[in-house]
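S.,

Sequence below, as promised.
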Amino acid sequence: MIKNYLASFKGLSNQVWLLALILLVNRSGTMVIPFLSIYMTQSLGLSLQQSGVVLMFFGIGAVIGNYLGGKLADRYGAFPILFSSMFLTGVMFLIMEHVTSYVGLCVAVLLTTVLADIFRPANMKALAEKSLPENRTRSISLIRLSFNLGWAIAPAVGGVAIAWYGYAWLFRLDGATCIAASILILLLLDRKTNVEDKALEQIQDKRNSKTIPMKFWLFLSANFLGMVSFMQIVSALPVFYRAEVGLSEQVIGGLMALNGIFIAVFEMPFVFKYEKRFSAMTMVMWGTVLFAISYFIFNFGSTLLLSIACILMLSIGEILQMPFANAWILSIAPEERIGQYMAYYGISFSLSFIVAPPLGMYLADHLGYLPMWNIMSAIGLIAALAFYMLNREMSFDREKKGGLV
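The prediction came back faster than expected:
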């Protein structure tokens, strides 16, 4: 088992490893987002609906940031965008510590997220340039491994920081790790791209690169619905754990950390074993099904055990859904437009974050948590059905071309 686990890491480029290290440093300080809804309702006294609106600005900022990031990365290359995004995001988190008004938080969250999400398309463009097509799915999983290790560290440390020092330290630690990551980008990453090595591929791709295929737009629509369900993990779910299950911030931080630890341990060997056995869209579909099931289990009670089960199901769903979704997009995107395709993918996430927090909070406030969880489960199942239908439509292409289509 250990031998197979280690084998899943072989063959990846040094630059992909360095990019993963940088993301680990950055994500180890991701403490604001997991606790922001609790901070606003418990510390600042905002209502559920107000906190939902503030979180909605994460989504609006992410739409703008992903769009700009894709354009800028394709035009100027990944490196300058990665550095600028990380450094300026760190500065904004340090500023956010001093913003306590409702309107001020909306503006600060919007600006911070625009700067932070410019990073995402540039990050995927850098990964595509520094990895081989045959190991891109594993390269994506390595990046996600660093992300989830950071996610495992950050909420756990954040919960302790709140208990010992107060909420202000969340913003300071998040800002410091962003700035540290920007310094590592300067020191470690190769500023050159490998695009010239793929010149022939680009010439061939450009013949069809101006038209984005309909299957991609259908995929983004389904992904939007799936993420409306999934994104409750950072909005309604922490508040539910605090208000209904009665968990402390430290325990909630531990549950969020469990999500990151589980994915960090199991995603790479899973992808290594199954990436060639099933189509990417099949994996995406079943991952979305698990998003839906994870919330439905609260029909059986609001207990710590079910809270753990919910996190584990969401984690398995992530392992099935997210690396294969990214790999599928990279498999259909022309090399010279990867930034644009990944920007659109990021926008589908961001639009879901505009809808998910206020919708979840509104439903919880007016109908109660249980009806809200059932509605989120239904939305997840609709998304899974859409992926299933898309997968059937593409079955002929899989037989004809092979690979992750």
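Residues 14-191+212-401 form a domain with the Growth Hormone; Chain: A; fold (CATH 1.20.1250.20).

Coffee later?
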